[in-house]
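Q: Focus on the chain.
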Amino acid sequence: ADGVYLDGRRPESVTFCDARGDAMRRDFTINAMFYDPMEDRVVDLVGGGRDIEAGLIRTVGDPRERFGEDHLRMLRAARLAAALNFSIDRETEDAIRDLAPNIRSVSGERVRDELIRIMDSPNRAEGIRYLDRLNLLGEILPEVAALKGEKQSPTLHPEGDVYEHTLLAMEQLGETDFRTAMSVFLHDIGKPAARLERNAFHGHETCGAEAARDVCRRLKMSSSEMDCICWAITKHLTFKDARRMKESTLRRLLGHECFQVLLELHRADSIASTGDLSNYEFVQAKLEKYADEPILPPPLVRGDDLLALGAEQGPLVGEILKKVTDAQLEGRLA
């Protein structure tokens, strides 16, 4: 049995107890059942089996007490409901709505880990809808909550405001990694800051990358995850220029270590708006073209080579290397 909870996360003490005492310290009824291998039976002291059959997420005992013990359980309720296609018990839901501000006291790492689990689920968009309905989204990700009601051009975005577009884009994702899911989730969070007249958002990809970096830092993501997510957001409008790019520019883009994240972001973004995948298909064809050779082959000339030939160290060396690499990538030099 648990002692008193003073920090909204862990008890001051834990003591041995019987099965009922153990069950009563759990978060939700569906997580509070036991298997008795000696008698080959399920021990259910809190109605977890009944709630599974009913498709219901319900706390063990008083929901306000359970969420007071560990505030993260509120996020877990949203995750479980979305992942299992369950609904949330009314009393449990009301308690979460009232206690939602308490989630701000939970560390960024713990919020991140729960968000990773939401993003890993095929029902990730429904998970975000649950966070919104439970008043949790605005507490942990106010940048995303601010997208609700942010109008867009009905021609380019007949699906609705930026928030609905974001959820629709997330629904286009199949099994994917956390970086890709978060890139799609955050790709338009710069639109409120970049809004101009007539539903135009020039520069929102730059504003969005800056805002996404703040989110990633707050959630204590790794530098590599943060850099990849922010790069994809910065570049997510690049595909509209793909057909006009020099071959060297396009190959540098295709060869970036996070290009597959960007490619999936563009696909989901396109389907969730106009549905036009012509640029996506053009880039896919380019990838197939280079399937049997390195997209970014080893350089023909390096800086040390130029210095050995007597070139002076400085900007000119970089300019020469770029021109040589451009010619190599465009097939003019081999």
Observations:
- The chain has 19 helices and four strands.
- Residues 297-334 form one domain.
- The mean pLDDT is 90.
- The CA atoms of residues 216 and 226 lie 6 Å apart.
